[in-house]
Design goal:
Elements: H1 6-34, H2 38-64, H3 75-89, H4 94-125, H5 129-163
Amino acid sequence: MVIRSLEDALCRVMTDLLSAEDEFRGSLGRLADAAHDEALADTFRQHRDATSVQIQRLEECFRLMCQERPRGVSKAAVGIVREAEDLIRQDGQPEARDVVLATAGRHCVHYQIVAYSEAIEWARELRRDDVADLLEENLEEEEGTEEALCQIATRLSSDRDSAR
């Protein structure tokens, strides 16, 4: 994609987000299955379900901008998922693995928070409030997931420290 305007840049970041959401949705079920802590597994499953709705919102953004759903691959998301998959396959003490899995989930979410923030800013600059509003819904869900994963990771870490 040739980027000639802010609208092109917005479409580029939304294409990346769409690919990232697809990549992350696939790994969230595997993260949930690998998690020992039920709250962590539930958070991954809930976010997987929310991700399907986020993909629909992104597709609506493209429709609003009179563009077809683009095809692209988020190389960053592929790398983050590959790292998470490596962690899933590693053996270890269940509570310690859960801390690492929560952190892997946070890596996914942080990537998306930055990308959604950029896209919202650009959509507002282009006076595409319809698009920005949809993107903000996704951003709020990502931030909620990040907060939940952070709390779980903190609890799991302190539980491990208490058990020593």
